[in-house]
Amino acid sequence: MGAKPTTLLSLEDIDECCELTYFSRRDIIRLFDRFYRINPNAVKANPFGVRLPAADIFASIEELKCNPFRQRLAFVFSSKQDDCFSFDDFVDLASAFCEKAPASVRASFAFRIYDFDNDGLLTASDLGRLIDFLTCASENSPKLLERDEVVGYILEEAGVEGNRSINEAEFQLVVKKLPDFATSFKLIM
Ligand SMILES: [Ca+2]
After folding, report:
1. Ligand 1 centre from 76 Cα, in Å?
2. Residue numbers of the domain that contains 74
3. Span from the CA of 158 to the centroid of ligand 1 (angstroms)
4. 3, 56, 151, 189: which could join 94 in a potential S-S bond, CB 3.0 to 4.6 Å?
């Protein structure tokens, strides 16, 4: 039957992942097992080099299966921007939205996800697309962030009018005023 997934990881590998994320050794082992199950043969052949299609990864994660932000997540977290994730990319995604990640880290990734045209600014156009994403999502699909009020707040607090745009520092300030942000913008994997 071949090796168990955990034997593919050395303690050094695990500790390196721990250092770069908010996870414990046990978390890393659990995530690796999850990654392995998506395509055991490919992962076994090249545990850290293999890049699995983001679509396969999302399909295996209940919380992401129907998430309207799948494409944005694939873009932001695929280190080679090839719509595929290495194990490191997968861990980065899980770490960014885990419970231990500080609100500022989650906000930083939220900013990149909402910046649909990747120009480093949230413009009215980005926020408009964000509202579309949130309102077009199926009623009963799980969403990474189900926050119509957040969108309203962002517009109001940042005073977006005309061509006004929000940079990441301003976005962080807006998010600080949202007590629910840290709890709503999370993903348990
Ligand atoms: Ca933008």
Report:
1. 13
2. 9-96
3. 15
4. 189
Distance in Å, CA 122 to ligand 1 centroid: 5
Residue 107 and residue 82 share a domain: no
Q: Coil, strand, or helix at residue 50?
A: coil
pTM of the model: 0.81
Distance CA 189, CA 16 (A): 19
The per-residue pLDDT for range 38-88, each reduced to its tens digit, is 999 999 999 999 999 999 999 998 878 888 889 999 999 999 999 999 999
| pLDDT tens, residue by residue, 142-175 | 454 544 566 566 666 666 555 578 889 888 888 8
Residue with tokens 């080679």: 80
The CATH number given to whatever domain includes residue 147 is 1.10.238.10
User: Residue 2 domain-assigned?
Assistant: no
Contact 63, 188 (CB under 8 A): yes
Cα gap 146→150, rounded to integer Å:
9
Q: Are residues 87 and 130 in the same domain?
A: no
Alpha carbon of 123 to ligand 1 centroid (Å)? 5
Q: How far is the CA of 126 from the centre of ligand 1 (A)?
A: 6
